[in-house]
Automatic annotation (TrEMBL):
Transmembrane segments: none annotated. Residues 348-429 form the DUF7586 domain. Residues 13-320 form the Beta-lactamase-related domain. This is Beta-lactamase. It holds the Pfam family Beta-lactamase. PANTHER family: D-ALANYL-D-ALANINE CARBOXYPEPTIDASE, D-ALANYL-D-ALANINE-CARBOXYPEPTIDASE/ENDOPEPTIDASE AMPH.
Length: 449
């Protein structure tokens, strides 16, 4: 990294730590599968924090619970459409689906009944479930977004029941050990930061409690380090080491609920928090517990991620992570790889390329370097998708409007392509060509009545 980039990043971190009056602050950037920068300000004890210093990461814990649920789904142990009663019966949300719990759209209260759960010792799963009665439901419409810590406490119990062990043990065996995340733990292990509250009107500190949240621990219990969170960012990007299929992680990153109404700058996928910023689509999660703040966000399209951790209850602005990404992009924009011709593309596909018409609307079909087909409108916006070959002459859409839809190639008696049948929509070589089976018939151009 260029010295000017490092200085700009460090200055942004230093401003945040001083103006926010943060006891200690550490941040890191990941690009192309490796950590390219770590910066720190402030002190933990008598020294600056390092990338091995533990901080409590709060609601980032929820992303681990979501991965455990998705592993169960991929194993066939549950379906995301299953109702909670199918696995954890006896609550007032028994008719809610697993998907609704993962996307915070179940209508369940944000916090559990009882004292302030983040600051008091937690109870058992049975005690938590017994409080989820009609009073724990929030007003309709049920399908709208409403963040629920309780929902992830319930999902932790679901994992425990299906695995026959605690969610924490399942997480350790199924996620942390395979990924080498040995510094992510339920309780702090040295070296770790202490959590502090900073007085709003004076530069003095007060220690914050760090209780075991019990059945609510799946909502925010974990401690971790910048090194481990950098590995977790790579996981969110699809470097899963077999813990999940990358396609399942991509499914988790797809929007399921919108957090901020019409503008849609934030929302949730399946356990992952989503943001849109300056053309980026970011996936990860924020986290807060008494004495601690943390954020980890990944941009899969750019293979770039950011994490920060702080030991303060308040004082770090939400813009810090986004600003660090922007600084990196401004000072060290990517230099594209040189274009090179390919010799491993099926040349028989060339006869499919070029212009095709959906009625009077021109589209262009081209072969991508990885052998996929790419169908896009010739000008302006419209339905665009990539297609993967199935090995039998048909293709399946990967994204956009035609995701999962079949594409078949129509040919004449000589084998020459005459039309594309895209899930019943017919594309022809010329607008409404006679050579394609266009429903409703084709009378020809120039008819005036």
């Amino acid at each position: 990294m260029l010295p000017t980039t490092e200085r700009a990043l460090l200055r942004r971190l230093a401003v945040e730590q001083r103006e926010g009056r943060v006891p200690s602050l550490i941040a890191g950037l990941v690009r192309d599968g490796r950590t390219i920068w770590v910066g720190t300000r402030g002190r933990v004890g008598d020294a600056a924090p390092t990338s091995n210093t533990q901080y409590r990461v709060g609601s980032i814990t929820k992303t681990f619970i979501a991965v455990l649920v998705m592993r169960l789904r991929d194993e066939g142990r549950l379906d995301l459409a299953d109702k909670l009663d199918d696995h954890v019966p006896g609550t007032s949300i028994g008719n809610r689906s697993i998907t609704e719990l993962l996307t915070h759209s179940s209508g369940l209260t944000a916090e559990p009944d009882g004292p302030w759960w983040e600051r008091t010792p937690g109870g058992s799963a049975e005690e938590l479930l017994s409080t989820i009665d009609d009073d724990a439901l929030r007003p309709a419409p049920r399908h709208t977004f409403h963040y629920s810590n309780v929902g992830f406490g319930v999902l932790g119990e679901l994992v425990a029941r299906l695995r026959g062990t605690s969610w924490a043990e399942a997480m350790r065996a199924e996620i942390l050990e395979p990924l080498g995340m040995n510094r992510t733990t339920l309780a702090p292990e040295a070296p770790h930061a202490k959590g502090w509250a900073v007085h709003p009107w004076a530069d003095v500190l007060m220690p914050e409690p760090a209780e075991d949240a019990g059945a609510m621990a799946p909502a925010g219990q974990l401690w971790s380090t910048v090194d481990d969170m950098a590995r977790w960012l790579r996981f969110v990007n699809g470097d899963t080491a077999g813990v999940l299929h990358p396609d399942t992680v991509a499914e988790m990153r797809a929007p399921g609920a919108v957090d901020d109404g019409n503008e849609w700058r934030g929302g949730f996928g399946l356990g992952l928090q989503l943001f849109r910023h300056s053309g980026r689509r970011l996936a990860g999660h924020t986290g807060s517990m008494p004495g601690f703040l943390a954020t980890m966000l990944m941009d899969p399209a750019d293979n770039t991620g950011v994490v920060f951790m702080a030991n303060t209850t308040a004082g770090v602005g939400s813009a810090l992570a986004l600003d660090l990404l922007d600084i990196l992009d401004h000072h060290e924009p990517r230099i594209p790889d040189p274009w090179e011709p390919r010799s491993d593309i099926d040349l028989d596909l060339l006869e499919l390329t070029g212009q095709w018409y959906w009625g009077p609307s021109p589209h262009v079909l081209r072969v991508l370097p990885d052998g996929l087909l790419d169908l896009v409108p010739w000008q302006g916006k419209g339905r665009a998708s990539r297609f993967r070959p199935n090995g039998d002459g048909t293709w399946t859409g990967l994204d956009g409007y035609y995701a999962g839809e079949p594409l078949r190639i129509g040919r004449d008696e000589n084998g020459t392509p005459t039309h594309l049948d895209l899930n019943t929509f017919i594309f022809t070589r010329t607008p409404y060509s006679h050579d394609g089976p266009v429903p409703g018939g084709v009378e020809g151009w120039g008819v005036v009545e």
